[in-house]
Amino acid sequence: MAVVTMRELLESGVHFGHQTRRWNPKMKRFIFTERNGIYIIDLLQSLSYIDRAYEFVKETVAHGGSIMFVGTKKQAQEAIAEQATRVGMPYVNQRWLGGMLTNFSTVYKRLQRLKELEQIDFEDVAASGLTKKELLVLSREKAKLEKTLGGIREMQKVPSAVWIVDTKKEHIAVGEARKLNIPVVAILDTNCDPDEVDYKIPGNDDAIRSVTLLTRVIADAVAEGLIARSSGGSGEGKGEKAAGEPLAEWERDLLEGEKAAEKPAAEAEKPAETEAQPAAEAAGTADEAAGTADEAAGTAAEAAGTAAEGEQAAAPAEQQG
């Protein structure tokens, strides 16, 4: 079954590109025709590219990866936040801070600061031990951090891939991802550069319905990958991740602990099997002995019956004599 249908793409306006005077010649191969001064995107190609992107995202998440959703333009903000929250992935929908990927160590410190501020009860002035002015300053700092970093609050490391709406507007995010060799999955409108994107989806990145539909498709791929990860269907082994993505220290310890526990259990099973074999042989010998005893008892009973018949036959003979 197709991930999305042609009718859904048409109804969402995915096929509408930019005006003919605002285009990137590299996008020519994705353009179907031109109508009323607007380029029309070839949706047959879009369907094919959607399937490729869907499979990539699903496999990445199934092998333990994460996808960052990025879209700061007004048309994308709501869809990005809603779909990323639905599947528990980090997102940026307000403002991309320079260095969010390339300087993540510093960004991570700000995330820790945000978590510290969230522990403060700004309503209880007496218990906080701070003045009202100090609490006001801290509350403003918290609000600012929540606005810019709230979507990546739980992110512990750079993502395995990024989903971007409008690569022209999010060119800083695209540049950082390419520097770190992080795969980029993005909507490509007729004014975008396809060479910047690894998994491209030709489509309209300006219409709310188009952005919502394509973001939902990517979120569905993430959800399917999470299901596969939890069931272990797409992983090669328990606790393993995709090649090139090292395990965290606690995950390595857990995996080594499981392997260490499996070895003594396997060794304990071998002596148990060895002990069970003589016991089974002894039980078989006992059964054979019991069978022999039964046969001997039967023979003795037959002999006793024959002797009784002989005595009965001898009694009339004595009477006649």
Automatic annotation (TrEMBL):
Keyword hit for Transferase: no
Biased composition range(s): Low complexity: 274-321
PROSITE patterns: RIBOSOMAL_S2_1 (PS00962)
Top-level taxon in the UniProt lineage: Bacteria
Disordered: region residues: 253-321
GO CC annotation, single: cytosolic small ribosomal subunit
Gene3D superfamilies on file: Glucose-6-phosphate isomerase like protein, domain 1, Helix hairpin bin
GO MF entries: structural constituent of ribosome
Keyword Ribosomal protein set for record: yes
Biased composition (Basic and acidic residues): 253-273
Pfam families assigned: Ribosomal_S2 (PF00318)
Keywords: Ribonucleoprotein, Ribosomal protein
GO biological process: translation
Coiled coil residues, start to end: none
Family to which this protein belongs: Belongs to the universal ribosomal protein uS2 family.
Protein name per the record: Small ribosomal subunit protein uS2
Originating organism: Streptomyces qinglanensis
